[in-house]
Amino acid sequence: MLPETTDILNALVLMSNFVFVPALAYGSQLALGALGVTLVFGILRFANFSHGDLMAMGTTIVILLTWVLQANGVSAGPLPTALIALVPAIVVTAIIAIGIDRSVFSFYRKRRVAPVVLVIASVGVMFMLSATVRVIMGTDNRSFTDGERFIIRAREFREMTGLDEGLAIQTTQALSLVVAIVTMIALFAFLRRSRTGKAMRAFSDNEDLALLSGINPDRVVLVTWILAAALATIAGALYGLDKSFKPFTYFQLLLPIFAAAIVGGIGQPIGAVVGGYIVAFSEVMMTYAYKRFIAYLVPEQWEPDGLVQLLGTDYKFAISFIILVVVLLIRPTGIFRGAVIK
Amino acid sequence: MTDTTVTGAAGVATRKSANADEAPVHAIVERRQSPLRAPLAFVFMGGALVATGYFQSPAVALTILNMSLVSAIMAMGLNLQWGYAGLFNAGVMAFTALGGVTAVLVAHPPVWEALQVGGRGLALSLLIVLAIVATIAFLVSATRGRTRSFLIFVTVIVGYALLRPVFGSAVGAIESVDPAATGFIGGFGLPITLSWIAAGFVAAAVAWIIGKVALGLRTDYLAIATLGIAEIVIAILKNEDWLARGVKNVTGLPRPVPYEIDLQQQAWFIELVERVYQNRLAGITDAAAREQALRQLVVDGSGYFVDIAYAGLFTVVLLVLLALCVRALNSPWGRMMRAIRDNEEAASAMGKNVTKRHLEVFILGSAMIGIAGAMMTTLDGQFTPGTYNPLRFTFLVWVMVIVGGSGNNLGAVLGGFLVWFCWVQAEPAGAWIIAQVTADMDPGTELYRHLQDIAAPFRLFVMGFVLLLFLRFAPRGILPEKVRHS
What is the mean pLDDT of residues B135-159? Predict the structure, then answer.
């Protein structure tokens, strides 16, 4: 009664197509977002509610630059033009982030107010950023991807392998993973090896000790915002390329991003990465309908009637939340023993 | 305790900083406020509403007034949590929406047909859920370690497998009952004012669950947990059509006040209108014209009457809740809350159970927000889950509390009025500015069309700006908390 090899292969391809590949791409985007949140949390010690809208802001700039490039006939060949726009957009977003810090956050930091005041300030920033993004982009969906849409098309894959199921890999999905990995390697190398990176980690571990050792806090904060802006822009642009840009969705990304950061251990960069993939895979796996997958593996008479979907896709936020709650209940420090509980 | 560490609103409490150039003396020592400050602020607010009635229309002013009253209650609820206890609730929207759905479930007449086909299934589902919860509760108390986790996991899986088919078929049956008009279970058909009380309890129950999980951890975690619960509550209300029709909305909820169309037929009401407008009517000599004018006045007047009746009801609720809050704040309990807020460690060392007090105040505040949510749905006469968004229903309430003065109940009320007024008026103001800017532009261009759409985000920008301005330059709000020293 064992299923045949082709059936198993078909089932695996099906899973890859609808669960593995999308979750990997989404996880990369979340991981980058969570890295930004966790860096700000580690160094500046507050949960930055405006991070989602900073991502939206960065993406907006990427889109505007992409339009300028496209109008001038520049393209990245098979890759999206947005990839070229990314670098200048990071610079602009970093300037915006530093400007926000100078005009809003630094005031409270200097006065050493309770972190929750900074959270409220970040809500104010969130309002203003969100409004600015909507003023520039409007509220509709905008797709700004171009170049080759697929690396492998489902039909080609079927013809190539002779299987019933196709595997499609979009350029944006592959790009998400590659860019995320490159960014993470660069970031970790920076944090581990460079002088500034070491100063940042020292500052995050013990602020007073770091100050006593002569670390310049202003420089650490400046670099933190540059990194946060870069990560936000990259994450936002990848998400926008993959799904399409809509201002409000970036606010909703805040919850999975926070969940990812907390699951991994807030303030721990490696935790943010792991957390991002955990949240993404849980979300996609819980909302996937397993009917066809099971149908390949079990004898015909056992085939399920329903969709075998654990949760409707509309409840994907619930999954981030459940993960969050479980972590808070069982291990509030997160997987990698994140900083500061109380 | 000396008053050097006592400062105003919750988090604004400046931690005694090591560097001497910080914390200037005048920021610490309580400055005496004029006792006229609060009355003047409210008179000004009233003046703004009257001016709206005069320059725009009385209907606009009354609409703003009613929603302001509701907003004031929301702000008071949040003020209880933030102002008294320093708890960051980012899920105001969830409690508002829970209040709204409670209004539907209490006041909408039951849909018997739906209950007949699916009622039994729903009841069975509820039993299964209760059984799961009871089993887990038992396992938590009776077992330990790995076994416990494993058994709980098994219970959840088995329970879910049992629940899914029962619940699924019940929901399917209910939703297929005349989907265009009903397709949901309806409610109890009780007077809608009862739902205001029920909403308080529903919101309190949900707050208890969230509080149990997230309180006792960092304040940021409560913020994130409540942010999550808000998204989930809205997702449930949007998608569970059997409960309250989801995005198809429930309209035509019963009212606690008379309908305009009925009022216009009532002899006493027409007489009342005649009496109120007798000067104006006396000026008209022609009988037919007079009749015509009277009819128009009766139609207008019935609208005003309904709005004023709502305003009266809401004011009563507001005053009752305000009185309770003021009493609570001045009681030993309120003093304890402020002590905990200003220095958790010290309060804890004095033997106060910080987590428990936080849970209490979180539940109370959420209950108030739930009441306000039910009132809002009552005022609208409909429940529309699609319209709840966090900027409007969570963070705007935050602006109200910060602007009004956290820790001060009157401040929260004032903030509710003022911020709601600005929120409503910012859109026409934005539109007016855009109209001035685009006056000389060619209406055919892309830019012109784009500019027409930005009036709405304009007010988001204004609100963010106002929040940041207050947080920086007047962190204690318009009506600061009164700190008494004995």
Answer: 87
For residue range B64-85, what is the model confidence (pLDDT) as tens digits?
A: 999 999 999 999 999 999 998 8
Which CATH architecture best describes the domain A5-330? Orthogonal Bundle (1.10)
CA distance B236 to A318: 9
Same domain, B453 and B328: yes
- Give contacts of A315 with chain B, Cβ < 8 Å: 232, 235-236, 239
List phi, psi (to 5°) of A151.
-90, -50
The residue ranges of every structural domain in chain A are 5-330
B55 phi and psi, to 5 degrees?
-85, -35
Q: From CA B150, how far away is CA A294, in angstroms rounded?
A: 25
- As a residue count, chain A comes to 342
The reported pTM is 0.88
- Based on the fold, state whether residues B59 and B135 are members of the same structural domain: no
Answer yes or no: do B288 and B213 share one domain. Answer: yes
Residues of B with Cβ-Cβ distance to A259 under 8 angstroms: 224, 228
For residue range A155-208, list pLDDT tens digits in order. 888 888 888 888 888 889 999 999 999 999 999 999 999 999 999 998 888 888
CA dist A266 and A328 (Å) reads 12
Which of the residues B215, B221, B427 would you substitute to probe the A interface, choosing the one with the greatest number of A C-beta atoms within 10 Å? Answer: B221
- One domain, residues B272 and B377: yes
- Kindly identify which residue of chain A lies nearest to residue B160, measuring between CA atoms: A310
* Residue B123 and residue B59 in one domain: no
